[in-house]
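Possible regression after last week's pipeline update?

I re-ran a chain I had predicted before the update to compare outputs. Posting the input and the new output here so someone can diff against the archived version. Not blocking, just want to make sure nothing changed silently.
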Amino acid sequence: MYRYIRYRWEKGNNMEALEPVLSKEFGVARRLFPGSNIEVSLFKEDRLELIVTADRMRVHMNAHRAILSQFEDGAFTEHDMRLRERILELYPRSRPTPFPWGHSFEPGYEVE
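New output (post-update):
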């Protein structure tokens, strides 16, 4: 099964703005992690996660990281590949920091 993680180092993606754009072509659901008004957290503003689904590919994405995964056996469809391309544009990095470690390598996959 396919699983690939992509990152964005600089300013994170605006998930509120991406939601309506992605929902025009893919299934989109929100996942909001709980918090409170008095907490101290560096990532408080990055709690919103979108779960974007195509035919056999699902992406869990927040402002700085996207996890692409295959939830159904079989070759990916063109619809899945459009989602993959869009995510690779939004999250251009294969590692979480500029330092030369922690690379994420894309596994092989088939396309119909």
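Follow-up from reviewer: compared with the archived run. Strands lie at 3-7, 27-32, 48-53, 57-61, 65-70. Marking as no regression found.
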